[in-house]
Amino acid sequence: MSALPQRPPTRGSKPTAPAYQPVFWQIADPSQPRIDPALIPSQSSYTPYPQSIAPSAPAVPPPPPGPRPSSSRQSVSAPGPSKKRQRTIQPAAPSPASSERSKPDPPAPPAVLVREKKQKACANCRRAKLKCIVGDDQTDCIRCMARKEKCVFYPRSLDDDWQQTMTQDVYAAMSHVSDLSSAVHHIIYHLSNQGIIPPFVTARGTPLDLYEAPDRDLPSLQGWSGEKNKEMPAPSRRRGTRAESTEPTVPKPLSHQPFRHPPFTMENPSDSWYPDGSMLPSQYPASGGQLTPTSEGLARYENGMHFNPSPATHTTPNSLPLISPALPPHPPLMPRVEPSPQGQYTGLLVPAECRLGADDPRKDVITEGMVAAEDAVVLVNYCHQNLSPSLFGYQLEFGHFPYLPGGPTTITPLILAVHCLLASERMPELFHYHASLAEAVKKLLMESPAGSWRSIDNVQEALVEGSLILGEDEIDPELGIGPEEIVAAAMLSLWMSDKALGAEFAATAFRYARGWIKILSDPEPRATVAELAGIVTEERVARLEERARVWLLCYLADGIATANERPFGEASRDPSDYCAQLVPLGPHRIDKRDLVLTSHARLLHILRQWQAGSMECLMSDSPVKELQRLASATDLQIDDLRRLVQTHVPDDWISVKQLDLFGAFVKVTIYSCLIGQEGLARRQRPTYVSKTVDVGVEMLERCTNWGEGSIANLPQQYLTMIFTIATAVTEYVSTAVKTNAQTGCAVTPEDVLPLLAQVIATLESAGLPQGHNIWVCVDACQRMVGQLEALCT
C-alpha cells in the first residue's frame, strides 16, 4: 500500500494533519509488514524504497522535478479532499549494486506551481467582485442585463495586443464572408435574370439567405476596453443575423382582400422582361471568365442552343418554384450592385423588345399613345445611364427598391413619364415628345400621382370641409402614393427648368416622403379601398434603410432647390438620425453610395446651420467676430466631411464631383458674407478674398476636367452654383486689377479666362434646346469673359 508523497512542513510552520488520500488496495506479500502512509517520505527528495518492501507489480516512475506545463483548462488546487480517483504513484525498485553505492541526492528546489483559472465572470462582474450568473438561453449575465451594460467575456491571461489582434482578424474575416455572400447573390441574381440558371432554392425550400456581418462594438470586444466598460446603452442584439431581421422583407397578403393588383408570381409571369432568343446566352460562360455588371450584356454567345425554361417551372425573374408560389420573386437574391469606379449606372438596361409597364393595369404614356414603346425604352435607358448617377448617390436599378421586384414591366406610370420627360429634353431626335410628356406629368402630379380613385382635389376639399385632418407630415393613404411616385417627384424637381415650379415639386415630394414613412410606421395593419380594388399596387414593405434613403433624397431635393434662400422662421430638419442609420459610427462596413448620400445631406445641414447662425450673429453685440468664429467652425466641418468621403470613395464618381462643387459653393458663400461686412478689419479682408478666389479657381479647374456632357447632366441648381462661383472669382479679380491695390488676390485675368472658356464649351456641347437654363449660364459666363478680356488690353 502506498500513497502520494507529501511536501514536508517548512521551518517555522505549524504542523498540520496529513491530508486524506484515497488508498487503492493491492495484493502484496503477506509476510511483509504494513507500512503506515504517514511514514513514507515526501517527493521533495527522492529516496528509493528498501528492496524488502518493493511492490509486487511494476509501478510508474515519478515525474522529474521542475515546473509542470500549464494549461488553460487545468487548475492546481490546494491540498484537500479530492473528488476524483487518483492513481498511486510508486517508485521503481533500484538494482542491488546501485543501492549499495548510491547515497541520498541533495534536496531539489520545490516545483513552481502555475495556477490558472478558467474564465467564469464577465468584465463587469469581475470588476465588482460579484458572481456572474447567466440565465438559460442567454448570452449576457443577469447583472449586465439589469444595468444595461455590455457583457464581455475574455481571458485575463491573454495579452492585450494579442487579444486585440485576434478580435480584429475575426471581424475582418466576418466582413470578408459577408462580401463573398453578396458576390454569390449578385452572380446568382444576374444568371437567373438572364435565364442561364433557374432561381436558386436551398434544400429547405427557401431562397438563399444573405449573410451580413453583424454590428459589433469592436473596442468592447477587445480586452483593453472591457475593464473600462461603464453603463452603456444596450443596442439591438444582432447575433450573426441579417441587419433587416427586425423588418419584414416579404409583404404578407391579407386574407380578406377579394380583389388585388395582379401578383407577380408564377401564375402571372412577366416573360416580356426577358430578351428574345437572339439576346439570350447560348451556353454557360467559361470557368475562367468573370461575369461583371458591365460585361453581362457583352457575354452573349451567337451560336448554339440557349436555355429555354419549361412551362412547368417558369424560371423567369418574376416566378418562383412550386414550393413558394405566393411569395414575391426571391427578394434576397437581389443585392445592390456595386457601382463602377466612374460612378456610372451599372444596372441591367431594358431590352428593346420589353414592354415597359405591361403588368401595371393603369394607363401610362405608352398606352395613351404619347410615346412609342421602343422609344420609351430608349428614353428610360438614357435616364438611368446619364441622370441617375447624379442623384447624390441614390441608386436606381430595376428589380431593386424603389422599383417593384417584377422588373421593367411593373414600372408605375408616374416614374415612367418622368424618365421619358427628362430624357426627351436631352435627346434632340426624341425632343418632339417633350411637350406632351410635360402635360402628362403635370396632370398626374396635380390630380393623382398614383392614379388612384381619390384625387388631390378631393383631399383638398375634404381638408377644407373638415372631414379629413392631416398633419404636416401626413398624407391620405387612399392616394396610393408609394416610393416610386416619391422618387419620381424628387427627380422632376431636380431637373426642371422652371425653378419656382421645381421648388414646389420638391417640397411636395418631401412631404410625401414623410407621410409615407409615417404610414409604414403605423403598427396596426390596414388596407385602403384602392388597394383592395386593385387600382393601385399593394403597399410596399420597406426596410428602415430604404426609408432613410428616400427621406434623404427628398430632403436634398427640397434643400438644393432653395440653397440660396435663408430659412426665415422655418424649422430646419436634422438629417442626423437617418445618416447615422445608413452610416453608423464605429468599425462597420461602409456602403459607398450611402456614404456619399449622407455626406450630401450633412453638407446641406451645415449650410442651413450657417444660414441660421449668421442671422443670429448679425443681431449680436459683435457681429463680425461671431461671424468669423462661425465661419471657421463651418470651414472645418466641410473639410472633415470631404476627407471622410475621400478615404472611402474614388474622386471620379459623379456624385463625389457634385459634393465637391456643393462644398465649394458653401465656402464661397461664407467668405463672401464676411467680405461684405463693413466692420471687418482692413487687414483681414485680403485673407478672405484670397480664400474665395483660390476655392473658386480650383473648382473651375475641376469642372474643366469632367468631360463633355457631365455638367449638363447635373441637376439645375448646380448650374447656379457654377455661376455663383464664377461671378465671385471674376468680381474679386477685376477689383484687384482696377484698384491696383493689395487685395489678397494673386490670380490674374489671364489665369481665369481659359477656365471660363472651357466651362462654356462643356455646357454648349450638351446640345440642349435654347429655352433650357443651361444657356442662361452660358450667356452669363460669356459676359464674364468679355469683362476679363477688357482688363487684359
UniProtKB/TrEMBL annotation:
<keyword id="KW-0238">DNA-binding</keyword>
<keyword id="KW-0805">Transcription regulation</keyword>
<dbReference type="InterPro" id="IPR001138">
    <property type="entry name" value="Zn2Cys6_DnaBD"/>
</dbReference>
<dbReference type="Pfam" id="PF00172">
    <property type="entry name" value="Zn_clus"/>
</dbReference>
<dbReference type="GO" id="GO:0000981">
    <property type="term" value="F:DNA-binding transcription factor activity, RNA polymerase II-specific"/>
</dbReference>
<keyword id="KW-0539">Nucleus</keyword>
<protein>
    <recommendedName>
        <fullName>Zn(2)-C6 fungal-type domain-containing protein</fullName>
    </recommendedName>
</protein>
<dbReference type="InterPro" id="IPR036864">
    <property type="entry name" value="Zn2-C6_fun-type_DNA-bd_sf"/>
</dbReference>
<feature type="compositionally biased region" description="Low complexity">
    <location>
        <begin position="41"/>
        <end position="57"/>
    </location>
</feature>
<dbReference type="GO" id="GO:0008270">
    <property type="term" value="F:zinc ion binding"/>
</dbReference>
<feature type="compositionally biased region" description="Pro residues">
    <location>
        <begin position="58"/>
        <end position="68"/>
    </location>
</feature>
<dbReference type="GO" id="GO:0000976">
    <property type="term" value="F:transcription cis-regulatory region binding"/>
</dbReference>
<feature type="domain" description="Zn(2)-C6 fungal-type">
    <location>
        <begin position="121"/>
        <end position="153"/>
    </location>
</feature>
<feature type="compositionally biased region" description="Low complexity">
    <location>
        <begin position="69"/>
        <end position="81"/>
    </location>
</feature>
<keyword id="KW-0804">Transcription</keyword>
<dbReference type="GO" id="GO:0005634">
    <property type="term" value="C:nucleus"/>
</dbReference>
<dbReference type="InterPro" id="IPR051089">
    <property type="entry name" value="prtT"/>
</dbReference>
<feature type="region of interest" description="Disordered">
    <location>
        <begin position="213"/>
        <end position="272"/>
    </location>
</feature>
<feature type="region of interest" description="Disordered">
    <location>
        <begin position="1"/>
        <end position="113"/>
    </location>
</feature>
